[in-house]
Amino acid sequence: MSRRVALITGITGQDGSYLAEFLLAKGYEIHGIVRRNSDFTSKRIDRLLTNPAVTTHYGDMVDVSSLHTLLIRTQPTEIYNLAAQSHVQVSFNVPDYSAEVNALGALRILSLVKEIGLASRFYQASTSELFGGLPGTVPQSEATTFMPRSPYAAGKLFAYWTVRNYREAYDMFAVNGILFNHESPRRGRTFVTKKISQAVARIARDEQDTLVLGNLDAERDWGYAPEYVEAMWLMMQQERPEDYVVGTGVTTTVRRFVELCFAEVNIHLDWIRDDKLEIGVDSRSGKPLVKTDPRYLRPLEVEHLQADPTKIAQEIGWRARTNVAELARIMVRYDLAYSDYGFEDAVPEDAISRWRKQP
Ligand code: NAP
Ligand code: F7E
Question: pLDDT (tens digit, 9 = 90+) per residue, 219-248?
């Protein structure tokens, strides 16, 4: 069998951890880049680290020497570039750094692959944030015009075009997966779905009084992350390098996601507008459980995202299998079972399968 060696940047993140598991099951040798931190960041992949097929290496997307050394030492057949400063709101606070990692990071790897003369295939974690704010263009497909509305998205747009240019100029197998939001119990706690599911579990356990959010009217196309890493891999196995939109095709407001999560613990909300702020009260007890706060509003918002995943369905056969209500259930049930954020053992995924069988 031919060599199957994957280099994953961002292996400690949500997607990196699921992708590593997916590729291990396919028999890959896996190398992951881990950046130096003041504490351990490997919670999501700890249980993979005893596997001899998995090696982690210190490196950083802003450090060309480390990337150069790793590419030469590991000689990957496939590179998955998932590392990013991936928080849209935070990118307004650290714009230079976000561009360094999200834009130049991809360029650095592509340019090294070319100069070293590697035959590696390259996957770029592109994003539905590229579509941004052009009114009237929904659902969004590979042909939709981009209009980024954050330093995060502007950096990702640079990376998107760099991939296309390297593909065309140097005949490299380099692809953009334009992924819409995908979530899971492993989602970082500052992203809205995890913030909501965790707060709902804590409120149900009487450990928290209220959930404070920003824009409740933003609409996102939310899917289930483990399914999306399969789409990444499938794109990399095609004969020709092509870019694909990946999403469910269904969009939901933040407000509705809140309602779905509370419904999992049998709480139904009534919404009350108070001047510009909004409060979600428990319809039985009248207790305020959700509040809005301008602190969580962004300087620019992306209001409406909805994928048109026709191309990937027709050409590759990939389709999202988990709908947003199932996603809310998976996340809340996980957070009810595990009061702390962590992936200490393999039980949650089994438990999730059991929960999903319930009517
Ligand atoms: P995530 O959980 O935030 O993970 C990001 C990863 O990048 C982490 O492993 C992080 O390391 C690493 N990283 C950040 N800065 C780095 C640097 N300077 N050098 C090396 N590594 C660095 O993100 P995710 O949700 O898994 O998303 C994966 C990728 O897909 C990202 O590029 C994201 O922008 C993109 N994307 C995500 C979605 C989504 O809905 N999840 C949708 C479209 C595109 P630490 O653990 O040390 O922080
Ligand atoms: O926000 C609104 C917020 O931070 C979703 C990243 O993975 O997906 C992600 O970016 C929506 C926005 O994700 C809060 O204003 C309301 O409209 O969970 P999020 P995102 O910005 O869509 C894309 C595809 C990526 O590529 C990114 O890497 O929810 N919202 N209240 C809030 N958002 C947050 N974080 N916190 C709130 O309190």
Answer: 999 999 999 999 999 999 999 999 999 999
Tell the burial category of 36 from Cβ atoms under 10 Å away from its Cβ (0-12, 13-18, 19+). Answer: exposed
Place of tokens 């935070």: 90
Pocket of ligand 1 (CB under 6 A): 9-10, 12-16, 33, 35, 37, 41, 60-62, 82-86, 101, 125, 127, 179, 181-182, 188
Side chain identity at residue 244, one-letter code: Y
Cβ of 124 less than 6 Å from ligand 2: no
C-alpha–C-alpha distance, residues 174 and 124, integer Å = 8
Please enumerate in sequence order all residues whose Cβ is within 8 A of that of 306, keeping only pairs 6 or more positions apart, or say none: 138, 139, 140, 180, 219, 221, 247, 249, 250, 251
Tell me which of 56, 74, 77, 127 is the catalytic residue: 127
C-alpha of residue 190 to centroid of ligand 2, in Å: 8
254: Cα separation from own chain's centroid? 17
**H/E element, 89:** helix 88-93
Tens of pLDDT, residues 315-349: 999 999 999 999 999 999 989 888 665 554 444 55
Handedness of CA 24, 26, 28, 34 (dihedral sign): negative
Q: What do you get for the CA distance between the two ends of the chain, in Å?
A: 44
- How far apart (Å, rounded) are the C-alpha atoms in residues 35 and 43? 14
CA of 13 to the centre of ligand 1 (A): 5
